[in-house]
Specification:
The protein is α+β, with helices and mostly antiparallel strands. The protein is built from two helices and seven strands, in the order H-H-E-E-E-E-E-E-E.
């Protein structure tokens, strides 16, 4: 195994922010940033002729932790995990999979809301959004000229 040196080249910037704003403000900002902003899961959206598929990367959850709903053409995917190991004393936490909420606008002319299905497997939530028949691309038709 190779030893990799870490270069902390910018301690002056951190010290500058601490001296200008006060370490309490900087620490609170970092805490809020870490607790809210980075909890959004990454999403792939795959489009085919028949449907859209959302792949939501959400490892560490159970299928019962998810709530997927559609209201006013907004698809909302929410997950919340019950805290089971509150008595652990961490010295460092770099990831936390406790909850998230993401919303997506749907085209009411294009998506068949009653046919939406979701499945959670291997840390990925797959949400299938079928396209309405009347919204699917029609094949090219040649018109004869008389």
């Amino acid at each position: 195994m190779r030893l990799v040196r870490v270069n902390n080249s910018y301690p002056q910037v951190s010290n500058l922010f601490n001296s200008l704003l006060g370490s309490e403000v900087v620490n609170e900002s970092a805490r809020l940033w870490n607790s809210h902003s980075v909890n959004l899961p990454k999403v792939n959206i795959i489009e085919s002729e028949a449907s859209f598929e959302l792949e939501v990367s959400a490892p560490g959850f159970e299928k019962d932790d998810f709530n997927v709903e559609v209201e006013n053409n907004i698809l909302t995917i929410e997950a919340s995990k019950k805290e089971t190991e509150a008595n652990k004393s961490y010295s460092r936490i770099e990831f936390k999979n406790d909850s998230f909420k993401r919303s997506f606008s749907l085209s009411k002319e294009k998506i068949n809301e009653s046919g939406i299905e979701a499945k959670y497997e291997n840390g990925i939530l797959n949400v299938m959004l079928p396209i309405k028949e009347e919204a699917k691309a029609k094949p090219k038709r040649l018109v004869s000229v008389n």
